[in-house]
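sry for the spam today, last one i promise. struct tokens for design, 690 residues
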């Protein structure tokens, strides 16, 4: 084998040559890196911006001239349409607040090469929310609906119908959206078996996010009601409570749309008393007889079985349903009704018109019928239809607004938390007029349980037809205290009186003291009311500072009559009926049971004190453990004074604690009586008819 030997000199020469070659190569490479050359390149392909107006820079790399282009739009502008070499351009977008996310393509062209930049801008989070998980249709053809909450144009939503029952297809059509309800037409079915279809709704937004929801639609077969006998409402109301065994049906008119948020009282969840269970609202239907003279409440088996629309004429099979009753008033509720029992539902050809009536003429048959109460006004017309501490809105569902009429009668108008106009920044009407709705009987534990024999539920803001201004009402205000007038207070004594009436002339005094001191230490001081028109969800939550006054321990007395708050007024020259409006609540430990009495003398231990009414104040809510009997806002009441209190120089009205029954942290009874806690008054007034 031959060996190749290099001298040290030749080896050194060879190494030197190799180094020269490597240096040349590296020099070329370094020059290439420093002198970067490309026909077209960009520093970003996707630029995502916030929903506010903004400007962003985009870098273009090119050897020669380049051009920009984009589709026509009204929200993105470029500061140039061309450039050369390595340079940048600016893209400016307008605000996209309260709009869905959007995206636009910018095309960059150089030397026949086209590249794309996607400008994306955030916005609203897209939402598709079908309130019901299922919807049940009757065997006959008809139109169905369910509540859909979405902020996406319906034509942008993808709809996909999957028919699950073999051989049963294309029985759904006309899928549309009216802004509240998802609507569809259902073809009639002659099948002896139910059939199902799944409707899927989805949307892919400009940021690449998909939102979706679906609803299962089941169409029932024809029920076994071919031999059922028609009965009127009076017959059904005479049936005993319990299961209906007779093969009978009724005809009636539906009074409220599926999905209306003010249909029924929603209780707190059985498993969590701090959460509202809205099932009751979802399954409740009010139906009146064809002549409107009698009403029945229906409770469907599930929310999906509630398939009714307002002013539909229905035939309902009652066999195997369940009847419950109340006696005062006499009411009838039919429960556990599946949609299979709906024999027929068609749109009524006659418009639904409320029957006009005065409170004094209401009878038990009017419960669950649609009426228009005549000549009414809101008793304490401050704030909104929902004057509560909004921090408790998710724990307490219903607020009762006291209303009174020209004849001196009063009752409550009920508003659920889901009503959109309950607190929308508008002052409630202060004049009189008419209120339409369904007459109901409900027990509100937070407001003392029995709130009266009749109440009314409105179903739209147009149902409340009251004049705007107070001078457009039927009442004159004799005297009114609607806040603690701290602007009048200089010091702590009667030298300045923050309980000076806002309207009229009168005096509030304490039965145990000649004068009142106006400090928290002394016992009377300003506190919060909850009648702000637009509550701050993170701040005041509906509170108005000094919108009310607190009176501490004024029931502290050893005398049999108990402590009392005294109102002094003159009714001279008043000949029309007069009434007292009172708004209040108590701290836990203060008396809950009260009496109103009047006299012509201020002598608390002498003279004749005439009984007007007994009432209860409820304990104010506690955040740690909110009892079902605690109020999140002031309770309003209206009391009529007798005609013998008219035309007098001095009338004294006392609000007196009847006993020492108080609540506790765990119950509305059995608490420890206290003289260091307060009763709270948001409003006291006396009114009489014009």
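last one done:
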């Amino acid at each position: 084998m031959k060996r190749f030997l290099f001298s040290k000199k030749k080896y050194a020469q060879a190494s030197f040559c190799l180094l020269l070659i490597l240096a040349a190569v590296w020099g070329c490479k370094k020059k290439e890196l420093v002198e970067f050359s490309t026909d077209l390149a960009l520093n970003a392909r996707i630029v995502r911006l916030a929903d506010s107006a903004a400007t962003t820079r985009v870098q273009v790399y090119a050897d020669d001239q380049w051009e920009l282009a984009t589709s026509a739009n009204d929200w993105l502008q470029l500061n140039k349409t061309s450039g050369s070499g390595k340079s940048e351009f600016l893209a400016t977008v307008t605000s996209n607040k309260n709009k869905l996310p959007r995206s636009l393509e910018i095309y960059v062209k150089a030397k026949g090469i086209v590249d794309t930049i996607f400008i994306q801008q955030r916005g609203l989070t897209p939402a598709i929310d079908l309130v019901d998980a299922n919807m049940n249709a009757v065997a006959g053809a008809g139109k169905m609906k369910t509540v859909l909450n979405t902020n996406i144009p319906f034509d942008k939503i993808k709809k996909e119908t999957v028919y699950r029952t073999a051989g049963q297809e294309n029985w759904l059509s006309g899928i549309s959206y009216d802004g509240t309800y998802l609507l569809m037409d259902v073809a009639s079915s002659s099948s002896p078996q139910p059939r199902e279809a799944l409707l899927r709704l989805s949307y892919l937004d400009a940021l690449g996010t998909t939102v979706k929801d679906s609803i299962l639609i089941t169409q029932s077969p024809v029920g076994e009601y071919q031999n059922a006998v028609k009965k009127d409402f009076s017959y059904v109301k005479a049936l005993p409570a319990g299961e209906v065994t007779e093969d009978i049906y009724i005809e009636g008119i539906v009074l409220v749309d599926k999905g209306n948020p003010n249909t029924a009282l929603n209780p707190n969840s059985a498993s969590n008393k701090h959460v509202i269970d809205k099932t009751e609202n979802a399954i409740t239907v009010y139906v009146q007889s064809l002549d409107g003279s009698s009403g029945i409440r229906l409770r469907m088996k599930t929310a999906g079985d509630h398939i009714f629309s307002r002013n539909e004429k229905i035939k309902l099979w009652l066999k195997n349903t369940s009847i419950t009753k109340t006696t005062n008033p006499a009411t009838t509720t039919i429960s556990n009704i599946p949609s299979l029992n709906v024999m027929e539902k068609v749109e009524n050809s006659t418009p639904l018109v409320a029957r006009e009536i005065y409170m004094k003429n209401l009878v038990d048959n009017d419960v669950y019928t649609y009426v228009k109460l005549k000549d009414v006004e809101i008793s304490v017309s401050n704030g909104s239809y929902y004057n509560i501490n909004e921090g408790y809105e998710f724990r307490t569902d219903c607020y009762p607004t006291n209303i009174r009429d020209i004849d001196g009668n009063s009752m409550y108008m009920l508003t659920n938390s889901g009503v959109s106009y309950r607190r929308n920044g508008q002052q409630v009407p202060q004049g009189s007029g008419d209120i339409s709705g369904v007459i109901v009987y409900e027990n509100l534990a937070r407001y003392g349980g029995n709130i009266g024999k009749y109440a009314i539920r409105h179903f739209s803001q147009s149902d409340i037809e009251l004049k705007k201004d107070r001078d457009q009402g039927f009442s004159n205000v004799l005297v009114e205290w609607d806040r603690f007038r701290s602007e009048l207070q200089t010091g702590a004594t009667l030298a300045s009186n923050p309980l000076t009436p806002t309207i009229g002339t009168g005096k509030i005094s304490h039965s145990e003291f000649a004068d009142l001191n106006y400090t928290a230490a002394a016992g009377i001081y300003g506190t919060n009311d909850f009648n702000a028109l637009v509550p701050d969800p993170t701040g005041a939550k509906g509170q108005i500072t000094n919108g009310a006054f607190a009176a501490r321990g004024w029931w502290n007395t050893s005398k049999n009559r108990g402590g009392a708050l005294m109102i002094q007024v003159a009714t001279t020259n008043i000949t029309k009926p007069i009434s007292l409006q009172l708004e209040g609540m108590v701290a836990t430990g203060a008396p809950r049971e009260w009496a109103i009495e009047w006299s012509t003398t201020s002598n608390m231990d002498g003279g004749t004190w005439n009984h007007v009414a007994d009432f209860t104040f409820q304990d104010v809510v506690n955040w740690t453990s909110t009892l079902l009997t605690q109020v999140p806002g002031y309770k309003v009441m209206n009391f009529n004074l007798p005609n013998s209190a008219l035309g007098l120089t001095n009338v004294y009205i006392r609000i007196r604690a009847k006993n020492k029954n108080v609540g506790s942290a765990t119950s509305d009874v059995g608490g420890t009586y206290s003289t260091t806690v307060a009763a709270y008054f948001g409003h006291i007034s006396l009114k009489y008819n014009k």
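Residues 1-8, 25-36 have pLDDT under 50 and may be disordered. ok im logging off now
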